[in-house]
Amino acid sequence: MSDALKRSGYRTGYIGKWHLDGDDSPGFVPMARRRGFDYWAAYNLVHRHYGSVYFRDTPEPIAVEGFEPDHQTDLAIDFIRKPSTDPFYLYLSFVAPHPPLTPPPRYSIYEPGNIRLRPNVPPSSEAQARKDAAGFYGLCTAVDANLGRVLAEIDRLGLTENTIVVFTSDHGWTIGSHGVDEIDRPFEEASKVPLIIRYPQRLRARVERDSLVSNIDYAPTLLSLCGMQPVKGMQGADLSGWLTGDGRLRDRRSIYAEGGLGFAEEWRMVVRGPDKLVVDHTLTPTHLYDLHQDPYELQNLVTVATEKGKRDELLKVLRGWMIRTSDRILYTMTR
To answer: Mind listing the domains of the chain with CATH numbers?
Structure first.
């Protein structure tokens, strides 16, 4: 998407965690690997909220004082303020609320004892889950405040009506649900992410839409909202007409996800309506849930005899996704 927007005359900028290629801690990313982003204040990968560094166009690190998202938001506002007749595309990538769970003191406002846990947190995980959730919520509040600063600047510059703002994440976090503390699991707490879009010129405010949406849909949808065609080879669906009310939602009966890549616990998942099937790297079903009846995934139906028909049907749907996306596991199994 960034390459396509750059070719169409957009100013492109990336700030924060990159996590696509390069070294870790923190990792300089040469210009040739930045996928069309011109302005660069980023690094490949490090999880540190204080005492962090980033890079511009040379491998010389630039030190950051204080809470990293505060500084990154300052950079984002400077980018937005730059006088230009060209439209802009800015990707602001905060590490927070990723651990370490150390929000600034002004946002350490949540008491672990007051945290209401999900019913799928077992008693053995409750104490740690409450402590983690308190820190996590503090970081979420800090991120929210900085997002508010960005929106306020867009408003101040008179750019609100014609600026698309997307708030989302690359993963969730279990925080003790199912007795695990993970981000890369097929449970709903880890695989579901927020998606909020503000575009006053074409989207009605405060409208909640209920449908199966995958993050691979973001690029073709946003390009379409910008008046451009999706790039050839993009796997996602263009949902722009559905969002604006100018068209119906394309037939989207299921979505597909993959995780644990390269590890023994590698998994694939398909969700169709309320039904969710998870398989391991051998395509053996491991989890089956009815998310309407069991939103916290407390009852795994994968071995229930009466659910065999549904399980087998979802497995066919999952295989179809694997074929369409050239999933390497399916290729390896069928060589």
So the answer is: 2-244 (3.40.720.10), 254-334 (3.30.1120.10)
